[in-house]
Amino acid sequence: MQVINNIHQHSSHIEEIKQGSIVTPIGFRAAGVHAGLRYNKKDIGAIVSEVPANCAAVYTTSHFQAAPLKVTQESIAKEKQIQAVVVNSACANACTGEQGLNDAYQMRKIMANHLHIKEEYVAVSSTGVIGEYLQMDKIEKGINQFIFDSTLEHAEAFQEAILTTDTVMKKCCYSASIAGVTVTMGGTAKGSGMIHPNMATMLGFITTDVNISSEILQDSLSKVIPTTFNQITVDGDTSTNDTVLVMANGMAKNEALTEEHPDYPIFLELLSATCESLAKQIAKDGEGATKLIEVKVSGSKDDEEARAIAKQIVGSNLVKTAIYGSDANWGRIITAIGQTNTAVNPASVDIAIGNIVMLKESEPQSFSEQVAINYLNQDFIQIFVDLHNGKGEGKAWGCDLSYDYVKINASYRT
């Protein structure tokens, strides 16, 4: 499957940099190497800022937060800044007890020593199999091989190093003018399965040269997460490690952004565009997926209910399998809506798949099955629902459910 390029419809304030990456913002470099954690793919990488960067992060809501999350949370709480993030794949370092925590601290220390910076300026992250210990000799070997640069090749080396069952690298880059200064934001992510956030099995790393405090950055990230990363689902499972981390090093030298600044909405839009693009790319690359599904709900009591309904639809296994089989079975969409704990008038629902109206004010509409099949054979499917019950709007993204999903997850450890 191809990574989606123009899937986020952004305003004229924001410009997409198609060849941009996490190292396009001023002052960021990256590296990725093969340390032997996996057979032959790059498996450990890092992003580094020339100067300590203000930062913000959100984490999985799982009760079993992995050791790296605890170490990273401690670093951010102490300094409110980080200068580097180091990430390994193949091993999640989750449910590994005291040794796992010690290993995460050791990973942080090795990285700090390699860069000659304070340990608390390093965030650590891991992804892969749960319940296995990190091979620390290989972690150390990998970190000591890092040679950082701001080339696209180095950005892609990092992007490859963080992947697990992903089939493609996920990245985006945008720029905007804030207070008369051009600022840039780059992002990369991994995630294919166990994606059902209020964060889930995914890692997202965002770099920007914007001058903004950690407090306002954290508040901004918390504002955009509910409508972006938290609106994707692949299989309804939530993982132990997932993190979205934003680094803002201020090297664009714009006047410091506050929430009262007239250009603050542009920054929010920039952050939202980045998070939405990465979220959609994760949903499209769901394990075994062949199609990206976008559900748009309008006419609900409020936006929160619209988002809940949209996510219920896109997360329904019956809807997902129907989309995989190009079956225009709108009854499955109705069934998903009916399961939500939201205010719905069952006599006033409209449903369309693409531009094919199938239900109008809860009355079935005639349509051509062949036209519907032709539409559903595409790799990007939109479902529209209007509840005629208010002004709320919401979107969610997911993927179809194929035979390959079962194959991939039946043999994940073997």
What does the model show?
The chain is an alpha+beta fold. The protein folds into two domains: 14-284, 4-Layer Sandwich (L-amino peptidase D-ALA esterase/amidase); 292-410, ArgJ beta chain, C-terminal domain (Ubiquitin-like (UB roll)), CATH 3.10.20. 31% of the residues lie in helices and 25% in strands. It has helices at residues 67-79, 97-115, 136-144, 152-161, 214-224, 264-284, 303-315, 317-324, 330-338, 369-376, 403-410, and strands at residues 14-16, 28-33, 44-59, 81-88, 122-126, 170-178, 181-190, 203-208, 243-248, 292-300, 350-353, 356-360, 363-364, 380-386, 392-399. The strands form two sheets. Strands 1, 2, 3, 4, 5, 6, 7, 8 and 9 form a nine-stranded mixed beta sheet that branches. Strands 13-12-11-14-10-15 form a six-stranded mixed beta sheet. Helix 2 (97-115) runs parallel beside helix 3 and helix 5 (214-224) packs across helix 6. The two termini are 24 Å apart. Mean pLDDT is 90; it is low at 1-9 and 194-200.
